[in-house]
Write a structure and sequence with these properties.
25% of the residues lie in helices and 24% in strands. The chain contains 18 helices and 37 strands. The strands form nine sheets. Strands 28, 29, 30, 31, 32, 33, 34, 35, 36 and 37 form a ten-stranded mixed beta sheet that branches. A nine-stranded antiparallel beta sheet has the order 1-7-8-9-10-17-14-13-12.
């Protein structure tokens, strides 16, 4: 089904102890997920409109029955044997059927969005592999938002004899649960009147599961389904309703004896307070050397997302709904569609996965980028019934944490913006057409459902300025003037809010002096370049957008403030190695003297003379969107180098921290702040001694942008070595909660290494790798299309091929590596196109519309 010969070149492989922490999320955008554990087990059932870390559905597992010729049959749970510890007070949970035999070992290959498990057991007469995925096609939000998980099992007979096999999935009908807790067996007060039906629908067979206990508007209302393409099935709509463990005993004895189930009984609602387990088996007979692939689709449909996270009376308990539920009437409709379209869905997912992993970029970068793009489809993110995308900062074990659309945390995220830019634009609609007040004060958290009440807290200086940069990014990706015109009134209000009396930059000298609330959940008092570079970047982005709208006077004013700020930051904050903070008494300006850490007026939670890891945050963002130097280039390079030298530790064994711990012992990591020249305050800002992957990736990308590629890659390798499967889940980078949004800054490492820039307003695409090492190959996006860029030497020239694999995009200006710009040629599908070359840019005489299947070749 998938091109593993190309995908596995850069994919991670796990076995033995490294399987322990793996939970590979499977589900669509805004649908919730079920995770595939490293052993092949199903865990973290987060399909009920909230997180559920560590929660499993009892009696939900795959199993295999196999009989070789006239030998006794063998039945196994299709999982690797359970790893220690085993010392639970009441024994391991019975709902996990922990005492049933399993297989000896498994090799787990993870290349998000696809996982491959190769099971190993000499006693099993067949070879078994699993490919698990949810359809993932960048820019296709419907296909990528299917509430399902696909499990494609391949069974091969390596023996010289015939083998009979049955694959079986047993699953609890969990309809009626609200996600706040999971039962340990079939019994729970929220369950009852659950109905399982066997359905044969054209080329689809399976079980449709529902509840009759709740009204269609109840949070617990919904449906589940399991389906397959095979009609040679055997099934139980429900296990025996019996006490103790008689139900699972009866099922296992029946299945293990001959691989057949009773094909019944007729649907009947379960008693109140309990539900039923259904089983769906697929039969196959394999000749010597024969094989069969059996797909299972597990789907769900729980339409009633309610706001459970806010305390504000205007929104708490209000219904938001799920967008996916507006596309599908129930879970069976989803399963039927996915099974019918499975070859196409798998092929498109394979096209993306192969394009992404069949790359010359370092494996650790592909690993980091792909692992964190999975966050888009976890319970960190939701898509409400109106189609808008929203995100928590992360998710706790059983609830979203730090709601909603927190602007300063989502400043770092880049994955959604380039993979699903149309969804990212809905966040900007919320920021500037809803959350920005008339005076320019932006609510940096969003109350849902959207209404007249806005979140009541001071604005975040970093979030507000970063969001202006995000508008610029989104405009470059779509090139839509209408979008820019719609955002513009909010952009100007948000930017000029800094100039109000007593505000961040009341004297309009380009330096923020006033109280600056920020992502560290405190206020910085006094000039600093963390806020300052975001402010400078916002001024430059606003200038560019103003000129595009014909507002030259406004653009000139923004440019003037930018130029003053650029000079003043150097004058005030540059210490010859990196940029510091001037700490001022709260409420005062630069007319007063800077405070020293031993001063009685020194406010708590500042960094002063410290080397802050993201003190060039706005400059990093400016690199991402192609705005150039915000501060002098030499000072920027010196500063990013200083961050690496002072804050990056290869061994944290001697590091002292009383704060939260995300890296420890002999692990390495990038500290948020150090004080190489002394002056550490008695009470530095919270989190100063912590290690955050989102900032590690941001700094790594910035190191690459500034020419320190080896250093940047070392940071990335260090992060991913901590997420090794044994100590941490490779597909979950936490901060304040699991699957933390900030870690999606990892996408910028791909951008930096490939030298990527796209500007739809000019039809310009730039891919100039940071190192002139060929052959070179990378995945890229271009607003409304994506594909692969390949570069190599042809004689004494360089040749670049852009292959469009999805969508279409008009291009007119190209920037790619050339040996001889004066003699370059451009052809599209073998037809040469007239062009000119000027200052490193290739300009086509007229735009060319590249569509799916088109290849553009530049030689020069």
């Amino acid at each position: 089904m998938f091109s593993w010969d190309r995908i596995a070149l850069n994919a991670r492989r796990f076995t033995g102890e490294s399987l322990r922490r793996i939970a590979f999320p499977l589900g669509g955008i805004g649908t919730g997920t079920v995770s595939l554990g490293g052993r092949g087990n199903l865990c973290d059932w987060e399909i009920f409109n909230r997180p559920a870390k560590g929660r499993h559905l009892p009696y939900t597992f795959f199993a295999i029955w196999a009989q070789l010729a006239d030998q006794p049959p063998l039945a196994r749970v299709l999982e690797r044997r359970i790893l220690p510890p085993y010392d639970a007070g009441s024994g391991l949970p019975t709902g996990l059927v922990s005492g049933l035999p399993r297989l000896a070992e498994v090799v787990f290959t993870g290349a998000y969005p696809v996982a491959r498990l190769e099971f190993l057991d000499d006693r099993l007469p067949v070879e078994v592999t699993l490919e698990a995925f949810n359809p993932f096609v960048p820019m296709d939000d419907m296909i990528s938002g299917l509430p399902c998980a696909v499990f494609a099992w391949t069974v091969k007979n390596p023996t010289p004899h015939d083998v009979s096999v049955t694959l079986c999935l047993s699953i609890l009908n969990a309809c009626g649960l609200d996600g706040t807790e999971m039962p340990g067996n079939r019994y729970h007060p929220q369950l009852g009147r659950n109905v399982n039906r066997f359905v044969e629908d054209r080329d689809v067979s399976g079980l449709a599961m529902a509840t009759k206990k709740y009204s269609p508007q109840d949070v617990r209302f919904g449906s589940m389904a399991v389906a397959t393409t095979s009609h040679d099935v055997t099934y139980l709509t429900r296990w025996e309703r019996a006490g103790w463990w008689d139900d699972v005993q009866a099922f296992w004895d029946d299945f293990a004896s001959d691989g057949l189930l009773a094909n019944g009984p007729e649907p009947e609602p379960s008693p109140d307070g309990q539900s039923d387990v259904g089983s769906l088996g697929v039969r196959a007979h394999l000749p010597p050397g024969g094989s069969v692939t059996v797909p299972y689709v597990v789907s769900w449909h729980f339409p009633n997302l309610y706001n459970y996270w806010n305390s504000e009376e205007a929104v708490r308990g209000r219904r938001l709904g799920n967008w996916y539920a507006t596309q599908w009437p129930d879970a069976w409709a989803v399963a039927r569609y996915v099974v019918a379209e499975l070859p196409k869905l798998a092929a498109e997912t394979d096209t993306f996965t192969t394009a992404f992993f069949d790359s010359t970029l370092p494996a650790e970068v592909l690993d980091a980028v792909s692992a964190n793009m999975s966050t888009i489809r976890t319970t960190t993110c939701i898509r409400t019934e109106d189609g808008r995308f929203h995100g928590f900062e992360g998710c706790g074990d059983n609830s979203g944490c730090c709601p909603m659309n927190c602007t300063h945390v989502w400043n770092y995220e880049q994955a959604l913006a380039f993979l699903f830019p149309q969804l990212e634009r809905t966040m900007r609609e919320t920021d500037f057409c809803h959350n920005t007040r008339q005076d320019g004060d932006m609510a940096f958290r969003t109350l849902l459902p959207l209404g007249p009440q806005l979140w009541d807290f001071k604005p975040a200086a970093d979030g507000q300025m970063g969001t202006i940069l995000k508008v610029y990014r989104e405009w470059l990706q779509c090139g839509d003037r209408t979008f820019l015109e719609r955002m513009w009134p909010g952009v100007t209000r948000a930017l000029e809010y800094a100039w109000r009396p007593g505000g961040w930059d009341a004297d309009q000298d380009g330096v923020m002096e006033g109280e600056q609330h920020n992502t560290y959940d405190i206020e910085f008092h006094g000039p600093n370049t963390m806020m300052g570079t975001l402010y400078l970047g916002a001024l430059r982005a606003a200038e560019e957008m103003a000129r595009a709208l014909g507002k030259e006077e406004t653009a000139d004013r923004y440019r003037d403030v930018f130029e003053k700020g650029r000079r003043r930051h150097m004058e005030l904050l540059w210490n010859g190695s990196y940029f510091e903070q001037i700490v001022l008494k709260p409420g005062s300006g630069l007319e007063t003297s800077a405070l020293q850490p031993d001063s009685s007026d020194y406010p708590r939670y500042q960094y002063g003379q410290g080397c802050l890891s993201d003190h060039l945050l706005g400059q990093w963002f400016a690199r991402v969107v192609g705005l150039g130097d915000l501060l002098p280039g030499d000072a920027v390079r010196s500063s990013i180098r200083a961050i690496y030298q002072h804050n990056f530790r290869r061994d944290l064994s001697d590091h002292q921290s009383v704060q939260r711990v995300y890296a420890l012992n002999d692990e390495g990591g990038l500290l948020l702040c150090t004080w190489p020249q002394g002056g550490r305050p008695a009470y530095p800002f919270p989190y100063a001694d912590e290690v955050w992957t989102g900032i590690e990736y941001q700094v790594a990308a910035h190191l690459v942008y500034e020419g320190f590629t080896d250093e940047g890659l070392e940071v990335v390798r260090t992060v991913r070595s901590r997420h090794d499967g044994a100590k941490r889940n490779p597909w979950n980078e936490p901060e304040c909660g699991h699957h933390y949004a900030r870690a999606m800054s990892s996408w910028s490492v791909l951008l930096a290494l490939s030298g990527y820039h796209y500007d739809a307003t000019k039809g310009l695409l730039r891919i100039v790798p940071c190192r002139a090492e060929y052959p070179f190959r990378t995945f890229f996006t271009a607003g409304t299309a994506w594909g692969v860029a390949s570069m190599g030497r042809v004689g004494d020239r360089l040749q670049t091929t852009l292959q469009i694999l999805w969508g279409e995009v008009p291009l007119q200006v190209l920037e790619v590596p050339l040996v001889d710009p004066g003699s370059c040629t451009v052809s599209v599908d073998g037809v040469e196109r007239p062009c000119s070359s000027l200052a490193g840019r290739i300009v086509l005489a007229s735009p060319v519309n590249l569509v799916h299947g088109t290849s553009l070749v530049v030689t020069g």
